[in-house]
Amino acid sequence: MKKQCLVFAFILLLVAGCSSGKASSQEIKTVGDVQLSSLLNESGTYVGNNSDVLALLSHLPGGETVEKVNLSDEKITVTYDVKGNISDEAFQSYWFSGNQDRNKTLFYNAIHLSLLVPNARGYEFHVQEKSMSMTRDEMRMILSDEFADLPSEDELMEEETVRAFITTHEEKLEKMANNYEDYVDEK
Question: Which of 3, 33, 137, 145 is the most exposed place for a label (fewest CB within 10 A)?
Answer without folding.
Answer: 3
